[in-house]
Structure formats: structure tokens, C-alpha cells
Write a structure and sequence with these properties.
The chain is mainly alpha-helical. It folds into 2 domains: 6-17 and 102-150, Rossmann fold; 19-95, DNA polymerase, domain 1, CATH 1.10.150.240. The chain is built from 6 helices and 3 strands, in the order βαααααβαβ. It has a 3-stranded parallel β-sheet, covered by helices on one side. Strand 2 (118-122), helix 6 (127-137) and strand 3 form a beta-alpha-beta unit. The radius of gyration is 17 Å and the shape is elongated. 25% of the residues are buried.
Length: 157
């Protein structure tokens, strides 16, 4: 049997349950900041989770829930600005009140690290979101525990 040498983690739903009380709330705050009356309820957001990626999720929402909406300017820029605002809100939510890691995750990470196992993250979320979660829920230097953090905003596709 091969020896386990590395662990690769996703973030949202794996390290922590961030979707309902993190990303969804941050999206709604970004919408309010932009003067939009959109409200992604738990049920709507559950449907939107079939789409991978925050910017892609906004575009899907527009196509399927708001087909008559006309963005103020170019669509990709509008979506990128909304998503950037959402990321800032998410980072704030990670500090106050914060979201805990899922039960057992911290122990698993610490034990794997202490055993010299290689750790990595592969996720569609942004690097800023990963950093906010790790530093506020695990340790100030937690990002350094991972040999690679491949986040959605740092890869071409």
C-alpha cells in the first residue's frame, strides 16, 4: 500500500462551512452597497451553489433570476466590481464574528503538519478569502502551513 504523503484541501464546505453564513451574507452586503435590492436567501443560494465561482454565480443569477436587468456599463466589469465588494465584506465577516473551522479540521491540519505531511489548498475562492479564513480561524501564520495555495483568482482557468 502506498504511503500518504500529502493532503490537498478545498476551502468552502471542507475547511469550514462558509457558504450560508459567509459568502451568501457578503454577497447580499455587496448588493446593498451597489444599491441593488437583490436578496440571496438560503434557498436561492442553495440553487446558485450548483455554479462554481462567485463571478460565475452572479452571471447565472442575472440570466436565470433577473433576465431583464441591465448593468450600468459593461457586464464583466459590473460583475467584477460586485465580486470585489463581496470579497471585502467576506474578509470582514471572517474577523467579526468569524466562522469556525469544521469539527476536527484544526486537529487534522496540526497532526498532519507535525508529521511532516505536505499540505495544499485547491479552491475556486479567492486567495484573500482563503487567507481571511485561515488567519482568523486557525493561526496568524496558517497560510504558511500550506506548500501550495491554488486559488481561483490566481490561475488562468
Amino acid at each position: 500500500m502506498a504511503e500518504l504523503k500529502a493532503l490537498i484541501f478545498d476551502v468552502d464546505g471542507t475547511l469550514a462551512d462558509t457558504e450560508r453564513d459567509g459568502h451568501r451574507v457578503a454577497f447580499n452586503q455587496a448588493f446593498a452597497d451597489a444599491g441593488l435590492d437583490w436578496d440571496w436567501t438560503v434557498d436561492i443560494y442553495g440553487q446558485l451553489l450548483t455554479v462554481t465561482g462567485g463571478k460565475e454565480r452572479i452571471k447565472y443569477y442575472l440570466k436565470h433570476f433577473m433576465p431583464d436587468f441591465s448593468p450600468p456599463g459593461e457586464l464583466d466589469s459590473f460583475v467584477a466590481d460586485l465580486h470585489a465588494s463581496k470579497t471585502e465584506h467576506y474578509k470582514s465577516l471572517m474577523v467579526d464574528p468569524g466562522l469556525p473551522l469544521r469539527p476536527g479540521v484544526e486537529r487534522l491540519l496540526r497532526e498532519a503538519r507535525d508529521a511532516g505531511m505536505r499540505l495544499a489548498i485547491a479552491t475556486t475562492t479567492t486567495l484573500a478569502n482563503v487567507t481571511a479564513l485561515l488567519t482568523n480561524s486557525l493561526a496568524e501564520d496558517a497560510e504558511d502551513w500550506f506548500e501550495v495555495v491554488a486559488a481561483g483568482d490566481i490561475v488562468p482557468a
